[in-house]
Structures are given as structure tokens and as C-alpha cells.
């Protein structure tokens, strides 16, 4: 579907609906949230909702998926975008742990994968694009450490970044399942510390 150009007011209204829907889905789960719930929570009329989302819930859920994917990256900034020193890597690690500890099963990643699901090809593409962007930031960070001599030049940036990204996502999944952050803390710390281990 072609993207329509919205006025500033229209864009703000559409974003308010998406934000409200995302919050409801995080709190109640996608199967428990209907269009009437979203309309009530966002003070939106039926005509307004279908004006911005002509295909109804399907359109809105894709917009929520894109919003949650953006949130995953945004919530890690500015640290994720500046992994140029070991100290900054540690600051990013602390931010990730604090973020997930506070959000628990209300995190954007959990909402995106767990609540919205991966049954739709477009949603899978959104998740895939998110992980590719996230990995790119981490690869850049590993390459910066290699260039500055803070880690051995034999470290493979893509393999190392992939291990770190997997540690975050695996640890976050186990956090949601058990409500214990120790899995994420241990996996992420080990994956980052591995960057400096002798080769």
C-alpha cells in the first residue's frame, strides 16, 4: 500500500493511535485487544481509525510492529551508536540490563516478537530489518575496538557481534519466561568479555 502524505496534525493523530495500541498490546496481549479497545484508549472515532488504517487491525498491527522495532533501537541510544571504547561498551551493557530489568515482559522486543508474532511475512521482515540494523551497530563497535587496539585484531567483528546480539535476545527471552534477569546479565557479560580474551 502506498504511503499517504499526512498533515502534521494527521501524523500526530496517527502516531497517537499507534502509541496507544502498542501500550495496550504490551499490557494485555494482542489477542485480548480489539479495535474498540484501541478506540476507547485513544479517544478515536471509528471513522478516524479507518481513515488512518483502511485495512483495520491488520494495518494497525503492522504500524505497531514498526513502532516497536524503532523503540528497540531508540531505547539503547545514544550508547548503541557510540561503541568506540571499552568504557562505552560497558555503558551500553549497563543500559541494556537496566532497560530490560525495568521493562521485564513489557519490553518492545517482547511485544514485537512475542505479542505480534512472526506469522505474517511483513512482520518477519520488520523483525529481520531490526536485527540487521542492531547487528550493524554492534559490528561497528567491535571494529572500532580493533582499530584502536583495545581488542586483538584477530577478533571477527561479525561473529563477535552476532554472539553479543544473540546473548541479548536469548537472555531477554529467558527473562520474560522466568522473570529472572541473571540469564541476560550472565550471557551479555560473557559475550562482551570474550572480546578481550587472549586469542
UniProtKB/TrEMBL annotation:
Annotated GO MF terms:
DNA binding
Keyword set, alphabetical order: DNA-binding, Transcription, Transcription regulation
Show where the HTH tetR-type domain sits: 17-64
Instruction: List the protein's name.
Output: AcrR family transcriptional regulator
Where does the source fall among the domains of life?
Bacteria
Domain Tetracyclin repressor-like C-terminal: residue ranges: 102-189
Q: SUPFAM superfamilies under this entry? A: Homeodomain-like, Tetracyclin repressor-like, C-terminal domain
Q: Give yes or no: UniProt keyword Ligase.
A: no
Keyword Isomerase on entry: no
Database matches in Pfam families:
TetR_C_13 (PF16925), TetR_N (PF00440)
Amino acid at each position: 500500500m502506498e504511503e499517504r502524505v499526512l498533515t502534521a496534525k494527521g501524523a500526530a493523530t496517527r502516531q497517537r493511535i499507534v502509541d496507544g495500541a502498542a501500550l495496550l498490546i504490551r499490557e494485555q496481549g494482542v489477542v485480548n485487544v480489539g479495535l474498540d479497545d484501541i478506540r476507547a484508549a485513544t479517544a478515536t472515532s471509528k471513522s478516524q481509525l479507518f481513515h488512518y488504517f483502511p485495512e483495520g487491525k491488520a494495518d494497525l498491527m503492522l504500524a505497531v510492529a514498526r513502532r516497536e522495532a524503532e523503540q528497540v533501537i531508540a531505547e539503547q541510544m545514544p550508547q548503541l551508536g557510540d561503541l568506540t571504547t571499552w568504557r562505552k561498551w560497558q555503558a551500553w551493557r549497563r543500559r541494556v540490563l537496566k532497560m530490560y530489568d525495568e521493562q521485564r515482559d513489557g519490553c518492545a522486543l517482547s511485544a514485537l516478537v512475542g505479542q505480534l508474532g512472526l506469522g505474517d511475512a511483513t512482520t518477519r521482515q520488520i523483525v529481520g530489518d531490526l536485527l540487521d540494523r542492531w547487528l550493524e551497530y554492534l559490528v561497528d563497535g567491535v571494529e572500532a575496538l580493533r582499530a584502536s587496539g583495545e581488542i586483538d585484531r584477530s577478533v571477527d567483528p561479525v561473529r563477535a557481534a552476532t554472539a553479543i546480539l544473540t546473548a541479548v535476545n536469548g537472555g531477554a527471552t529467558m527473562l520474560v519466561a522466568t522473570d529472572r534477569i541473571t540469564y541476560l546479565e550472565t550471557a551479555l557479560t560473557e559475550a562482551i568479555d570474550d572480546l578481550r580474551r587472549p586469542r
